[in-house]
Amino acid sequence: MTCAIHSGNDNPLTLLQIDNLKTFFHSRRGLAKAVDGVSLQVDEGEVVGIVGESGCGKSVLALSILKLLPMPPAFFEDGRILFMGQDLLASSREALMGIRGNRISMIFQEPMTALNPVFTVGNQLAEVFRVHRGLERTEALRKAVDMLARVGVPAPERRVKEYPYQLSGGMRQRVMIAMALACRPALLLADEPTTALDVSIQAQILELMMELKAELNTAILLITHDLGVVAEATRRVAVMYTGRIMEEALTVDLFDRPLHPYTRGLMASIPRADAGFESGSLNEIKGGVPSVAALPAGCHFEPRCPEAMDICRTRPPRLETVDDGHRVACWRVGHA
Amino acid sequence: MPELLEVRRLVKHFPVRRGLLGRRSAKVHAVDDVSFSLAENETLGLVGESGCGKSTTGFSILRLIEPTGGEVRFQGENILTLAPEPLRRLRRKMQIVFQDPFGSLNPRMTVERVVEEPLLNHEALSGAARRARVKETLEMVGLLPEHLTRFPHEFSGGQRQRVCVARALVLRPKLVVGDEPVSALDVSVRAQVLNLLVELQRRLNLSYLFISHDLAVIRYVSHRVGVMYLGQIVELADVKAIYARPLHPYTRALLSAVPVPDPRRSRQRILIKGDVPSPIDPPPGCRFHPRCPEVMPVCREQAPLTRAAEPNHLVRCHLYDHHDVWDPSFQASASDALNRSTQGGSA
After folding, report:
1. ipTM above 0.85, yes or no
2. Could you tell me how many CB contacts below 8 A there are between chain A and chain B?
3. How far is CA A73 from CA A59, B73, B251, in A?
4. Neighbour-count burial for B164-186, b at 16+ CB within 10 Å, e otherwise
5. Taking the model in full, what pTM does it have?
6. A21-32: pLDDT as tens digits
7. CA distance B68 to chain A (A)
8. Residues 32-91 of B with CB under 8 A from A
9. Does residue B68 sit in helix, strand or coil?
């Protein structure tokens, strides 16, 4: 139902187009609608943020794109994901193998668990070149050293011989980025890439990602819970809540004029390092995020919403465009 | 404000065995010469990156781990030399809230049992009085009477952290150490718990030692802030001063590295290179010198002393060598002198 909102795939710059994606899980407590009708578009070289709290479905969305979910219990109820015109959900395993790590790659929050502890860094990095580029062992290893140098790992000749446990968190994340960008992918899915890192290292990694993006023209889908990271790194952002996009806009517009009560509540509830709180206390969003197995019938945010109306309890609002590129799913906005 | 807690030259080294057969021994300098004081009704924020020793400092103060050296005075009494029984009696006045509300609650105990356990250990109350206190405390943290019979798994992260806060407050302590108490919570729930902690402080006259890696959270809750790096406090000042005029190059870099939720703000980011060095072999001289953008020759050789760049703004950096050295025992001896003179006056 939301497909018509996009100008569509006739736009030559569109790299990734997700239409009405529904990724559900069978669980003991019933059907969990982890991603429930998400439509989103990423243009070439664009950095799009997905922001939301735990359980909002942002990671499942990213994993859906590469079909990296265990099926069952996961299944796609509906929707399609077009990547450079190719429908990923309908693609064969072999076709996806050619895309994963090659045209689309992914980095995760925890670089320790994402790297194989029993192989050297160089071995794992060289594998990318051997599998996707068909390079010889020595040539692949030489490339691995180059790549490590590119992502700012000091003494890369020595580091390729080391194991992941010998590296710090920041260095491991650099190795992950090196692996992800080895084949110059068109799209990078970054799932909380800096969350496990210290502030000073987070700044280094964000800087590195932006540098490489500019150099390789890689589009990035940046998944985070941190509005600060969104503000610094993204051009456009979608706010997710319990499987649905609540609001989407250019990042500047979203911060200038947040329209959804959830977005507004979220922004007012974060303490800031750049401003004092001499006046009063933080805004609270009452209650907690509902479980995906027991969601409200209408708007998912209704039980916590300070502006809820009768209609919000019974009917979910559609994501509607209010002005150029600013979309909101709220009965108070745009439905009048 | 009278000082509730005074920490002087606190040191905690952990021995580690290295080398073949563990024959070479080395020390992790987790906390190295940390001094600060905490007044009644005050919140001191300890902020720093992982491995800076902020949690070790918090644990040492409660003697949950035994410090290697230094002094920790709670209401004037050095708790590091206390015998087990007096220490146990003092502990009811000093409580802690941990980061992980999932790991720090016994899954087999109901909320009532979790919250009443400290009372059973420390206070001889009748059953009725105990239940009344538990109920009252739960109400204070925003939980309902029907929650008493529930188990931790029935609660969300935010509610669980409320249970942990109730457990800490049921003894009506003077000091609460919060070790990253909101770091595991979602953004929308974090504000609830932060507001609760601030409100409870006012209501119960609490002092907080609030440990966090999050500079925004620290700014919100703290009256004073200590920035730690590799086991040492490198800067300690009033919250307004430290955020408005950070003096130490590390503090400046740290503040400039925090992503700010404002896409229109363009700013000069001070990128600090490299990683935090190992606390096993901290760099000679100033511990920050290998990463410092303003490093000078002296920094490589001499460890800087803590100096008062302004009366209440302490900094451990050679850039401020023209200021007076701050002696952590100074405040105490000054107030002792004051006490003596008033006593002398009244006699």
Report:
1. no
2. 137
3. 16, 57, 48
4. bbbbbbbbebbbbbbbbbbebbb
5. 0.85
6. 999 988 887 888
7. 27
8. 49-50
9. coil
